[in-house]
Fold each of these.
Amino acid sequence: MGAQQRVFKQKIRSTQSLRKIFKAMELIAASRIQKAIARSQAASPYANALTRAVSAVASESNVDHVLTTESDSVKHAAVLVIGPDRGFAGAYSANLLREAEELIRLLRNEGKSVDLFTIGSKAKNYYTFRDRKIEKSWTGISENPLAEHAREIGEALLENFDPESADSGIDEIYIVFTRFVSSVTHDPEYRRLLPLEVVDAEEASTGGQAGESSDAPAFPLYEFEPSAEAVLDALLPRYIDSRILSALLSAAASEQASRQAAMKTATDNADDLIKTYTRLANTARQAEITQELTEIVGGADALAASAAGD
Amino acid sequence: MATLEVNVVAADREVWVGEAKRVIARTLDGEIGILPGHEPVLGVVADGEARILTPGEDTIRVKADGGFLSVENNRVIIAADQAELL
């Protein structure tokens, strides 16, 4: 076998083994999307119940709470970037980080200083490489976020939240994540988490169906047990945790969906490459055969000519 | 007789859904019993268990740690960070 043919055969073999890996990753991602969507939907009754309760308390009582009051002068903002731990997901993390950069630029232009919190090693590496200070980062939870993680993150974010203090406290908290719309559409977006704007149940739940109660905006006159302040005190941190959890779950579903799409493209490209190399290898083989035939015929002609000359 | 529609939800899943004749839960002030037709309530649930009495005379005991209870239009929602059936 000629050298050229050997080169092509080698390339075909290595592309085939890569293709196998891509295909396997695609299938794994596809099965995980379903799980991620199911978990996201399982969390939505809680999110809906909390949203409704928080809206009810906020709408009918004149309770002032530190988490809902807007600060007059916002100096410090915290940004939580929810990114992936692993690559191989196409433009997923690039799109997310671009969104985060946009938000940070926006905040800086308004004269606010930004504290960074990151989830996932991709976001962490991005900012560490650029020598930006990260207040706190979590890794290893992006693919399988649990309620405990959301609680831990919520606590860390709320720790320094203090709009009333003039200098050091954080006045606003933003969250950047990828919203899962469908398995082909996922939009990176940012939202302000605090001070609180209570959003509709439809928005709070990610991909889940909103409870039928949400289309009745008028709340009955609740009796608060023990008091409206105490209820709000207990509800708000949970509401924030639940918002973080739903963002985490939505990001996890988007990550798997992006990975599946990226791996599908990679598999298709590998197929194309294999086809191209097979064609080239065939041409090389045919050229070699033609060459050999020409040599044999030429050699025989030369022999015959020299025999006739004797 | 009207029944209560009860949902028990934890942060990451729905724990129990069904009908009930009566729900008893512990709030910060003490125990609260809810029968059909109860006025709307939003309460903080203290650690401990809630009891749900179903129309079939079964008692379902739910452990609900740190959460709240909402009652309106015969619909009871017990939402807790961690909730499990006992």
Note: Chain A touches chain B at residues 39, 42-43, 45-46, 49-50, 52-53, 56-57, 146-147, 150-151, 213, 220-226, 230-231, 234-235, 238, 241-242, 245 (CB under 8 Å).
Amino acid sequence: MKLHHSLIAAGALVAAFAAPASAADISGAGATFPYPIYAKWADAYKNETGVGLNYQSIGSGGGIKQILAKTVTFGATDAPLKGEQLDKEGLVQFPMVMGGIVPVVNLDGVAAGDLVLDGKTLADIYLGEVKKWDDAAIKKLNPNAKLPSTAIAVVHRSDGSGTTFNFTNYLNKVSPSWKDKVGSATSVEWPVGIGAKGNEGVANNVAQTKGSIGYVEYAYAKQNKLTHTKMVNAAGKTVAPEIASFQAAAANADWNSAPGYGVILSNQPGAESWPMTAATWILMYKQPTDPEASKAALQFFAWAYGHDAMAQDLDYIPMPKSVVESVEKTWKSEIKGPDGKAIFASAQ
Amino acid sequence: MADIALPDTPALVQERPDRTRVLSRLRLTNASFRTLTLAAAILVLVILGGVIVALIEGSLPALRQFGFSFVVTESWNPVTEKFGALAPIYGTLVTSAIAMLIAVPFGLLIAVFLTELCPMWLRRPVGIAIELLAGIPSIIYGIWGLFVFAPFLQHTLQPFLIDLFGPIPVLSTLFAGPPYGIGILTAGLILAIMVLPFITSISRDVFEAVPPVLKEAAYGLGCTTWEVVRHVVIPFARVGVTGGVMLGLGRALGETMAVTFVIGNAHRISGSLLAPGTTISASIANEFTEALGDLYTSSLVALGLILFVITFIVLAIARYMLMRIERRIG
């Protein structure tokens, strides 16, 4: 598609004009979900080393297009690429940080953590099959709650997003009829409900509409004090959304089971695991055209892995130590300069 | 000016430049000025042509895949890559229709008030306030619509409409369903507020251009204000008013951010005006960033092409109407 090329060319032109301000800056583009933590890391990193990060949060789709056009040193995506695609393009993929997705509701007399849902019921609500709050399926999970006989107003994201990708991926795993009728992608054909733009749009619509349900990133629900629900996880246990349950999901995942660490963390086993945990990935070339830029980017990522307290401050979940070690090994074995030597030496 | 020019004059006189040289310089200036204006005009055509070519080229994969069914299919499924544009087309046309239905009469009434009835001291403040409405960025309308206007409608107008039309057969489906606050009707209302200043200020300007002698003659014959407006002002100004209405309609069709915030963004066609829907520009704004795959992106570009065609048709109809009016008068 020629249009693509001209769009990308225009993007490159903009990047070329923007770049000279600080030639040594690391350039990246992609997912919006991790943007706040990347920005925070970048700010601290610049203060420490003088090397800045120019990250354009244009969406995962845009990030993939930009890295394939080689206008940036790294791309960032919420939906991992498949193994064959990584091999075909000569890309390395690794997870950078994680987050949780939580259902939020607006019901009189129901406080945060009061309501319990399971995956099948959540899928049925989003399919429009469970229509009222006092439906038998919800009552069964909440025998003591006072549930009104009002219609459930479903709210979903209208823009394509990694949050939707992970949310629908979870519904796919727990509900055959969801998989059959809707499926999983960054945006889907929603059977019911209203679409709102961004986490803030969903949060606002839920806050305004009595009897509504939506899904937002954990950081957003926590900072805005939204009424989140608990979930029944794959092990049949009821868990609350919190850093510990997200980390449990990450720890129970088999990170080497998919190429490029492309493990979707939804519906992970383990009694403590939160079922809607999500990672976000970085894409880089195995044989970069500019090895110096890639080296600077890898040093920044290594530094960021070592500063996980910053991530927790913003309610992101840092990658487990074992995963970080494995990723750094991958860097050493896979990402090479023109001389065939590894670009990344060791974490500073 | 004269004071500044004086010291130079003796020098000019001393030089006495050659007459032919001056003339040729003038001719050169004139020619280059003509070329410059021509180039500016051609540039617009080139850009327009470039946009059309890029839109058609970008939408080819989608149009090849779906053919004409793209325009008449309601389903928009990124998972199975089956795309149809009917729901956004419907939403675009219906929200614009609602906006015009409200904004045209209101805009004309305000313009009549400002030119014929308003006390002098009030004209400027009201006129400036309306022009300020036109200057508010659309994202502000969107935020205001989502945080203030939609909840207000949810608690007042929408329940009222549902109760009012509940027992009436056709209207009950038109105003059915739970009051979400956001939806097709809310988007239409926001658009009405956004296009109101365009219609008002252009109508006011053309009303003011009506020769006072015509109005005074009508008043002299004993006409009421209504009769003067109905039989003198509006017939005289109808070409200009139509232009203002079309400008407003153009904005309503293409408006993106404000609509995205309040329309509910659902790729569905519902009989109810209170239900969520989507428009062409809202769909593109929502989905372009995360659209993966050529077919998905191409379908969004094809939506853009359809909006382009719709706008073109609207403008063509407006031109045609103007021509007919002119011929009838002429």
Note: The mean pLDDT of chain A is 86.
